[in-house]
């Protein structure tokens, strides 16, 4: 059943108006008609709803069931990525959302080649947020991850106190004969609510950055003996977390 995330709540009579691109998609792409059912997601809950009327470009629906079961990850996972090149951010936003990511934090690392254009940055961030919304609807999630505009590495360190468990993917650790296995580290998050994982850009994190993260309480993790691309590493980690807890 088609799913739409809406930034408003049902009224007292269980009615709700869907506007904008979602309403256009319902009418022009899906060619749905009054009486048909769809799923509306509001405030983290999904409700089966019936199309009542079309009012110009808007679509009015009525809630016909209580909240559906949530399929969110049992842990709130924040992915922090050093700014990568090209379209890799879009891939991380899309696949990370499908795999249950709670939020995506971008940061400027020492070895980040890409420099965020502040003039175009807002539009880029909005595009990433749109990609996350579409991926959340496609994967039947009940929340859309928040995609933040890039922050400094210093700000990233300051944010660390917001999370229960802190990890950093360290490729140097992966090269060791005895590596710090992700599966072993995840046991430390068993009774915790939130996890934050930091990944470097294409050139990786510098040893200075790694040391500063360790000082802030970030635990090293290895994603296996092979060095993964910057867009692959978050997907690997989220898959492992899903396997561990779901």
Number of separate structural domains: 2
Q: What is the H/E order?
A: EEHEEEEHEHEEHEHHEHEH
Which geometry do the CA atoms define? elongated
Estimate percent helicity.
Answer: 25-40%
Q: Would you tell me the overall average pLDDT?
A: 92
Radius of gyration: 20 Å
CATH architecture designation of the largest domain:
3-Layer(aba) Sandwich
Distance between the termini: 23 Å
Q: CATH homologous superfamily of the largest domain?
A: SPOUT methyltransferase, trefoil knot domain
Uncertain regions spanning at least 5 consecutive residues: none
- Largest beta-sheet characterization: 7 strands, parallel
CATH class of the largest domain: Alpha Beta
The total count of strands amounts to: 12
Q: β content, as a range? A: 25-35%
Query: What's the tally of helices?
Result: 8
Structural classification: alpha/beta
CATH topology of the largest domain: Alpha/beta knot
Describe the structure.
The chain has 246 residues and is an alpha/beta fold. It has two domains: 65 residues, Hypothetical PUA domain-like, domain 1 (Ribosomal Protein L25, Chain P, Beta Barrel), CATH 2.40.240.20; 170 residues, Alpha/beta knot. 33% of the residues lie in helices and 26% in strands. The chain has eight helices and twelve strands. The strands form two sheets. Strands 6, 7, 8, 9, 10, 11 and 12 form a seven-stranded parallel beta sheet that branches. The chain has a five-stranded mixed beta sheet with strand order 1-3-4-5-2. Helix 2 runs parallel beside helix 3. It is elongated. The two termini are 23 Å apart.
């Amino acid at each position: 059943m088609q799913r739409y995330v809406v930034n408003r709540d049902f009224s007292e009579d269980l009615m709700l108006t869907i506007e904008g691109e979602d309403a256009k998609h319902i009418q022009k792409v899906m060619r749905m008609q009054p009486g048909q059912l769809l799923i509306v997601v509001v405030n983290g809950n999904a409700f089966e709803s019936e199309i009542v009327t079309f009012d110009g470009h808007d679509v009015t629906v009525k809630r016909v069931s209580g909240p559906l079961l949530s399929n969110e990850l049992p842990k709130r996972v924040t992915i922090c990525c050093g700014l990568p090149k090209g379209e890799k951010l879009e891939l991380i936003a899309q696949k990370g959302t499908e795999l249950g990511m709670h939020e995506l934090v971008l940061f400027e690392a020492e070895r980040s080649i890409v420099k965020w254009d502040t003039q175009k940055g807002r539009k880029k961030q909005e595009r990433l947020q749109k990609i996350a919304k579409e991926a959340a609807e496609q994967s039947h999630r009940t929340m859309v991850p928040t995609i933040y505009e890039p922050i400094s590495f210093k700000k990233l360190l300051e944010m660390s106190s917001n999370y229960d468990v802190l990890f950093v993917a360290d490729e140097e650790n992966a090269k060791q004969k005895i590596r710090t296995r992700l599966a072993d580290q995840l046991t430390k998050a068993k009774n915790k609510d939130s996890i934050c994982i930091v990944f470097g850009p294409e050139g990786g994190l510098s040893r200075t950055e790694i040391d500063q993260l360790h000082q802030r309480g970030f635990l090293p993790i290895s994603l296996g003996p092979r060095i993964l691309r910057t867009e692959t590493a978050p997907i690997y980690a989220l898959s492992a977390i899903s396997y561990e807890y779901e």
